[in-house]
Each structure stands twice: as structure tokens, then as C-alpha cells.
Amino acid sequence: MKNWRDNRLRLRLCAVTGMKFSVSLLLSPLLLSPLLLAVFLLFAAPLWLFAAERSLILGDFKNDFAEWSERSFAGNTQYEIVTLDGEEVLQARANNTASALYRQVRIDLSTTPILQWRWRIDNTFGTEIDEQSKAGDDYPARVYVVKRGGLAFWRTKTINYVWSSSGATGQRWDNAYAGRNAHMWALNSGADEQGVWIAHSRDIRADWLTAFGEEIDSLDGIAVMTDADDSDGSVRAWYDGLRFVATGLTRP
User: Fold this and answer.
1) What are phi and psi of 99, to 5 degrees?
2) By percentage, how much of the chain surpasses pLDDT 70?
3) What is the Cα Rg of the chain in Å?
4) Whole-angstrom distance, CA of residue 63 vs CA of residue 90
5) When comparing pLDDT for 208 and 177, which is higher?
6) In angstroms, what CA-CA distances link 145 with 37, 181, 232?
7) C-beta separation of 137 from 176 below 8 A
8) Band of pLDDT at residue 45, cut at 50, 70 and 90
9) What pLDDT, in 10s, does the model give residues 181-191?
């Protein structure tokens, strides 16, 4: 966490998104819960509701990522479209940096509850990193979904699907900064599969029920992030094909 200076709260947030914010607020720390307020504000802009489509493509990254916004927390992860194995994909390279690409979009989970994507990493942070501590809260790749808490920003919650360096595949834990409202979920682990595309398909409603014991019918945002600021490391990853689909609709 950063130092206090002249009643200005310098926040280094991992908030309920598991993202890390550096924000200056001219407010006393007694007036609000800053960890949750930052994410609430991030996803509080006007949202678009996708209700009738069987497939909602959010990031095929074939040309650009103009519909995505970047938020810097500790420098900037370098995001760019590259050609890999003959296909255009999103490359993320973090060198002691942390920034995320996010989309504010309201997603109707009653019609498109399944989130699909593929990712690939070049390296991990090694098996000694403690990802459940603040000093080790870095991941080669993460995709996370956000559900705002309405006016009650402290109720905003997120699931962070991560490629873990040291945790076991399938392991789940509360985020070191945000606690129970940011649920970390390791879908891949270690370096055995680095350099290989791994595809995922997650039933968000089912995962949300597992993570929080709650039933939901919509989301308010999605983000990807490759970060290396806590560990002072360097990692590279690639993302492609983020989309929400109807139950039973397989990848083309």
C-alpha cells in the first residue's frame, strides 16, 4: 500500500476485481471503503445489455481492441495485437508493471451464460511465489468477470480465473487485497503447459454459485490482465476468442 500524504488517500487497490488501482482521493479513509469504491466507479458508466444473442463476441482481437479500455495500476502492461502461429491475437507483456484491459458491458446470463476463451503463457513466476499474499499477487494471465453491487459499491464482486504459478489447478482462494469479494480460481498451473494454447469454457452462473453461494442473471464487465508488479518480475501471455455463448453452443 502507498503512503498517506496531506489527507490524500493513495490507494493501491486489488479491489474486488483483483485488479490493482493507484488512485488519489481527497477524502478521509473514514468516509468510505476505497477498495470497493474504485471498482464500483470503474464499472459504473452506462452499460449495454445484450439479451437476445446466442453468442456475444467480446474479444476476438483480429484487428484491434478499440472497444476495450486500459487501466494502469503500476505502469503499463504492454498490450498489442500480434500474429502468432498465423493468427492475430492479443499479446500482453508485463515487466514489473500492472495494467488491465476491461470492457464495461452488461451481459445477460439467462441467454449467454457460458464464457469461453483461450490463453497461452510464455513463462510463470516460479513455484516459490505465494499468490495468496500481497507480495505474490501476480499472474501470467487472468480473465475476470464483474458483478456490481448497485449503489452499494462494497457489494461488488468478481471471479478471477487465473493461470497460477504455484497453486494447484482447481484451487480457489480469497484475494490478498480484496478478501472474499474477489474470488481467485486457478484454471491452469505451473510451466508444464507454457507455450501451448489452452481453451476454457466456464458456466458463470454455476461458478458464481460455487464461489459466493448466490444466483445471478447478469454481469457488468469483463477484463483481462497480465501483471508483474508485486513480484518485480517479467511475464508474457496471449489471449484470444473471449465470448459468451448459450448453453450447448460449442466453439467453432
Assistant:
1) -150, 155
2) 78
3) 17
4) 10
5) 208
6) 17, 12, 26
7) yes
8) very low
9) 999 999 999 99
Tell me, what amino acid is at 138? Answer: D
Largest CA distance in the chain: 56
CB 92 within 8 A of CB 226: yes
User: What pLDDT is recorded for position 152?
Assistant: 74
Q: Cβ atoms within 10 A of the Cβ of 243, count?
A: 17
If you average pLDDT over residues 71-96, what whole number do you get? Answer: 96
Question: What pTM does this model have?
Answer: 0.80
Q: How far apart are CA 3 and CA 119, in angstroms?
A: 36
One-letter amino acid of 22: S
What's the whole-number mean pLDDT along residues 101-129?
96
Report yes or no: 96 and 229 within 8 Å, Cβ to Cβ. yes
C-alpha to C-alpha distance for 171 and 184, rounded to whole angstroms? 8
Query: Do 141 and 197 form a contact (C-beta atoms < 8 A)?
Result: no
